[in-house]
Amino acid sequence: MDGLLYSEIYAFALILISMVLIWNHKASDHSSAGIWFTYCLIAFAVNFACNFLWGFADHGVIFPKVQPYFWSYFFKVAYFITLNIATFIWTIYSETEQGADTFKSKDNIRFLFVPLGFAMFLAVIDPWTHLLFVISPGGRYERMSLYPFQMGLLLLYTSITAFRMLDKARYEVNEQRRIQMRLIGAFPIYLLGAWILSFFLGNLPLFCIAITCAILNIYIGNSTNQISIDKLTQINNRQNLLGYINGVIRSHDLQLYLLMIDVDYFKKVNDNFGHQEGDAALVRVANALKSACGGNSKKRPYIARYGGDEFIVVAEAQNEEEIEGLCRQIHDKLYYFNIWSSVPYNLTVSIGAVRWQEGMDTMALIGAADEKLYEVKAAREPFQIKPRSVPHGINLED
Fold first, then answer.
1. Angstrom distances, CA of residue 29 to CA of 53, 102, 127
2. Which of 49, 176, 178, 369 has the fewest CB atoms within 10 Å of its CB?
3. Which range has the top average pLDDT, 57-61, 270-274, 365-369?
């Protein structure tokens, strides 16, 4: 393939990745997964730049009088090094996105980087060993015996985290989130497809094309997902909630329950401690809900912010006892989150829970839960600016 066309394809991909990087930075939610996705974009941008410059160096367009053969090796070695780094960052991003703690430990990061570090070492010494590739004095690039090892290692890393991601996606109740997890999990399929096609299509920059397509798909998926996520609490928003309830009413396996949750005396929190603390209180409630609804159950409850200081949990259960247990979990988790946050007041919630009955539509189900909620609120305790040792009670009716 013509070297200049090769570089032009990389240049186009580099422009696309750079644009995604800029857009992603502007819309960043500063979450751990979002930060690692940004690092991933930077790493692949640098990787593409290396092969872009290699194409020019290999044809003497740059450094024509200063050992073009040397610069061809220099940029190709840099390409392999940055490819390993970018893939490792991708693996961390994928694990972080699915909530795993694999890379929270620096010791784990060092240990898991060792195989890729070895591959990078092979790239560094390749000008003398020619184990990964060789570039003839005439500029011909050729893959060598350990190239399959290098590609296989990248596929191994991305495939392990992709399998974990796709397995978790099977039990994700949020459709948008499930689609996004599948897009992330498809990354090694792009790499494998590019590798297979490279045996038939010569030196066409297929990896560049495959990685760019994968990143664009994930970025578009992220953008779509953000439309359905509440910015403050990072849980599902009202629009997403209504669509989910419509779907789950039509198809559910067990008894279907809806929990309407209201933050007790939220206005007093705002009045006494300011709106910033009010926002922190809502985030604390959302985190308590995530913790309570996470569990080990494959059919996890769906949580959303309905509006203001109201939240909704939609859950399938065998019986009311399971829902009563879930309510206790919510109260207990919030109680402990209060302690960990060291706030000078006791944040509690009231919960009205109802079971779906035949003939109920979405708004009828929400309305029934809202009625139960206000029955519970009428019996709540007064606002306290002090810790309390007993979590709030619950009230559950059909």
1. 33, 22, 43
2. 178
3. 365-369
Contacts of 126 (CB under 8 A, 6+ apart): 73, 77, 80, 132, 133
CATH number attached to the domain at 3-227: 1.20.1070.10
Distance CA(42)–CA(51), nearest Å, equals 15
Where are the CATH 1.20.1070.10 domain residues in the chain?
Answer: 3-227
Could you report the per-residue pLDDT of 243-290, keeping only the tens digit for each?
A: 899 999 998 888 999 999 999 989 999 998 898 899 999 999 999 999
Q: What is the DSSP letter of 170?
A: T
379: Cβ–Cβ under 8 A, 6 or more apart, which residues?
395
The Cα–Cα gap between 166 and 181 comes to 7
DSSP track, 331-374:
HHHHHHHHHHHT-SS---EEEEEEE--TT--HHHHHHHHHHHHH
Return the DSSP state at 380. P
**What local confidence, expressed as pLDDT, does residue 389 receive?**
44
Give the residue range(s) of CATH 3.30.70.270 domains in the chain. Answer: 238-378
CB 206 within 8 A of CB 142: no
CATH number of 238-378: 3.30.70.270
Per-residue CA distances from 47 to 13, 38, 106, 207, 344 (Å): 11, 14, 24, 11, 50
pLDDT of residue 315: 94
With contact defined as beta carbons under 8 Å apart, do 228 and 179 qualify? no
Quote the pTM value: 0.71
User: What is the residue whose two structure tokens read 């200081």?
Assistant: 309
